[in-house]
C-alpha cells in the first residue's frame, strides 16, 4: 500500500512524495528538498502549525494520505538532545538498568556519540568498548584451529531503523530526524568478515578523509581497546585450540603494538614544527586570465522562460511592500542610532582579513588578501606592483550598486582611509580599475600585467548550475488567489455584495 503527501515550500512551490507505512519522515523531507532543489539540513516539516518528529515512520506520525506538509526553515543554532543508549546481553549486566544517558548537540554525529559514551562522564564511570570490539574465532570455523579476532561492528536501532555502515554512523542526530527532545538508541553488534586490525585501519583511513582532525583520536583509542580484547579473547582461543595445535595463535600481538607506538612522536611535533610564515599583503594570492570568449558566460546559460514569469507569490509580495511603504514610520531615537553605530563598529572590528579582487581594463584580474588595517594606499601600491606600466595613473572604483562609482584609491587624495573602518568593506570585494584621462592610447591597449605575473594567471572556472528537475505527475497549476478577510473578491463578486446600512439614503 502506497500513498503520497504534498510538501509546500516557503515560496509556495509544491512537491509530491510517495510514501509507504514504513517510510520515515526524514526521508520524506530529503526527497521533497531534492525535488525543490533545496538543502534538507536547513528545513523541517510542519503539519497544521505543528512540528513533526522526523525520526518516526509515516504510520505512527498521525498523518493521512494526501496530507499537506509545510516546509519551514530550521534554526541555525543546534539544540540539546537527551540520548539514551540501551545495551543488551553481557554489556547490559555491567550497567545499571542496561542504559546510559547523556546530553549531546543535534549536530553531533552518531560515531562521536558512541565515542563519548565509551569514556568520560557519559559512560557513568564504566570503561566500555563499542567501536573497537573483536570476537575470537578459529580460521576454519570449528572448535579447533588457529584463532583470530574478528571485528564486531555496532548496529544502532533508532525507532525501528538500523544504522550499521560508517556512512550511516557519520550522520548527525539532526540528519537522522532528531532535532529536539529525547531519543532511545538500541545498540547491538554483528560479527564481520574483517579482522580487528584490518577494520581499525579502514576506520582510521575513512575518518582521515571525513574529519582529519579526529584521526589521531580514532587511531589511538582503539589501540588500548584491542589490547583489552586480546586479553579477554586469549583464554577462549587457547581452550579451542589446545587439543590440536601446540603453538596456538590468538589475537595478533603485533597490530596493537604498532598502533600504540605510532602516536609516540606526537608530543615532539609542536617543537619541530616550522614557524608560521607571514604573507606579504602586496603580493596577489590569485591571478586570473581574461575571458577568451567575446560572449559573456552568463549569456551562454540556457534558462527557460518560465523562470521569469511572475507568480502569485511575487504579486502578493509586491502588494505587501507597496502597503508597507504607505505607512508612517517613526524616526529612530538617539539611543537607537547610537546602538546601531556601536553594532556596526563591532562588526567591523571583528573582521580579521579582507579579500579584494581588482578587475583590470583588459579583462584580467588579481586578488589580494589584506589585513583589516589596510588602507586605500596599500591597495593602490599592490596594484602598481603588478602593472606593466607602473608610472601611469589610475583610479580604483567600487562597481555599480549601493556605492557604485565611489573612489577607493587614486593618484591624489582619497587613499589614506582604511578599507574596513573607513569604507566599511567586509568579506569579498570587487573593485574596478579605470585609467586617468592623461594615459596614452597605446598603454590602454597594451597588456596590463607584467609578464612575470601574467605567466601565473589561471582560467576563471564558472560553476555549472544544475538543471531543475520537472515535477512527477501532473504539471504545476497556478495557485488560486485567496479572498481577503473582508470578503472582497474579483469582478464577478459584485452581485453578491450588500449595500451597508450607513450608505443608504433617505428613510424607509
Automatic annotation (TrEMBL):
Ranges of compositional bias, category Pro residues: 264-278
Record region (Disordered): 208-290, 460-508
Bias type Gly residues, positions: 485-494
Record protein name field: TUG ubiquitin-like domain-containing protein
Species of origin: Coniochaeta ligniaria NRRL 30616
Compositionally biased tracts (Basic residues): 498-508
Biased composition (Low complexity): 217-234, 243-263
Any one Gene Ontology cellular component term annotated for this protein: vesicle membrane
Residues in TUG ubiquitin-like domain copies: 8-71
GO biological process: intracellular protein transport
Highest taxon in the source lineage: Eukaryota
InterPro entries assigned: TUG-UBL1, Ubiquitin-like_domsf, UBX1_UBXN9
Biased composition (Acidic residues): 465-474
Amino acid at each position: 500500500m502506497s500513498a503520497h503527501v504534498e510538501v509546500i515550500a516557503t515560496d509556495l512551490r509544491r512537491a509530491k512524495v510517495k510514501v509507504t507505512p514504513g517510510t520515515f519522515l526524514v526521508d520524506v523531507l530529503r526527497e521533497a528538498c531534492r525535488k525543490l532543489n533545496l538543502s534538507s539540513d536547513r528545513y523541517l516539516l510542519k503539519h497544521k502549525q505543528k512540528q513533526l518528529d522526523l525520526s518516526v515512520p509515516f504510520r505512527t506520525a498521525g498523518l493521512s494520505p494526501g496530507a499537506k506538509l509545510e516546509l519551514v526553515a530550521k534554526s541555525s543554532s543546534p539544540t540539546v538532545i537527551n540520548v539514551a543508549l540501551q545495551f543488551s546481553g553481557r554489556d547490559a549486566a555491567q550497567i545499571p538498568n542496561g542504559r546510559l544517558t547523556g546530553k549531546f548537540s543535534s549536530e553531533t554525529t552518531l560515531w562521536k556519540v558512541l565515542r563519548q559514551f565509551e569514556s568520560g562522564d557519559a559512560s557513568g564511570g564504566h570503561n566500555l568498548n563499542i567501536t573497537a570490539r573483536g570476537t575470537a574465532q578459529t580460521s576454519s570455523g570449528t572448535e579447533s584451529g588457529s584463532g583470530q579476532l574478528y571485528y564486531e561492528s555496532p548496529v544502532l536501532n533508532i525507532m525501528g531503523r538500523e544504522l550499521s555502515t560508517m556512512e550511516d554512523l557519520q550522520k548527525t542526530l539532526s540528519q537522522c530526524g532528531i532535532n529536539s527532545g529525547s531519543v532511545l538508541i538500541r545498540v547491538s553488534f554483528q560479527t564481520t568478515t574483517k579482522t580487528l586490525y584490518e577494520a581499525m585501519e579502514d576506520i582510521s583511513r575513512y575518518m582521515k578523509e571525513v574529519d582529519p582532525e579526529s584521526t589521531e583520536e580514532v587511531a589511538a583509542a582503539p589501540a588500548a581497546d584491542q589490547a583489552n580484547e586480546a586479553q579477554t579473547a586469549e583464554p577462549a582461543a587457547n581452550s579451542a585450540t589446545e587439543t590440536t595445535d601446540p603453538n596456538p595463535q590468538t589475537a595478533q600481538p603485533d597490530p596493537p603494538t604498532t598502533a600504540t607506538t605510532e602516536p609516540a612522536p606526537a608530543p615532539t611535533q609542536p617543537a619541530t614544527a616550522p614557524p608560521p610564515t607571514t604573507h606579504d599583503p602586496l603580493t596577489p594570492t590569485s591571478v586570473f586570465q581574461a575571458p577568451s570568449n567575446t560572449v559573456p558566460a552568463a549569456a551562454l546559460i540556457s534558462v527557460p522562460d518560465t523562470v521569469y514569469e511572475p507568480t502569485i507569490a511575487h504579486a502578493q509580495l509586491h502588494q505587501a511592500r507597496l502597503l508597507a511603504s504607505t505607512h508612517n514610520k517613526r524616526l529612530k531615537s538617539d539611543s537607537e542610532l547610537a546602538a546601531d553605530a556601536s553594532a556596526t563598529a563591532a562588526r567591523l572590528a571583528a573582521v580579521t582579513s579582507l579579500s579584494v579582487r581588482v578587475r583590470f581594463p583588459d579583462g584580467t584580474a588579481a586578488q589580494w588578501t589584506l589585513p583589516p588595517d589596510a588602507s586605500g594606499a596599500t591597495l593602490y601600491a599592490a596594484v602598481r606592483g603588478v602593472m606593466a606600466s607602473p608610472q601611469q595613473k589610475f583610479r580604483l572604483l567600487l562597481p555599480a550598486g549601493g556605492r557604485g562609482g565611489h573612489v577607493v584609491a587614486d593618484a591624489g587624495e582619497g587613499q589614506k582611509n582604511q578599507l574596513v573602518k573607513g569604507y566599511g568593506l567586509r568579506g569579498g570585494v570587487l573593485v574596478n580599475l579605470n585609467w586617468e584621462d592623461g594615459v596614452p592610447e597605446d598603454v590602454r591597449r597594451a597588456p596590463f600585467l607584467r609578464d612575470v605575473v601574467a605567466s601565473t594567471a589561471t582560467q576563471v572556472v564558472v560553476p555549472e548550475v544544475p538543471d531543475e528537475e520537472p515535477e512527477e505527475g501532473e504539471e504545476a497549476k497556478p495557485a488560486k488567489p485567496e479572498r481577503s478577510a473582508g470578503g472582497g473578491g474579483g469582478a464577478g463578486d459584485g452581485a453578491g455584495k450588500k449595500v451597508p446600512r450607513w450608505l443608504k439614503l433617505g428613510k424607509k
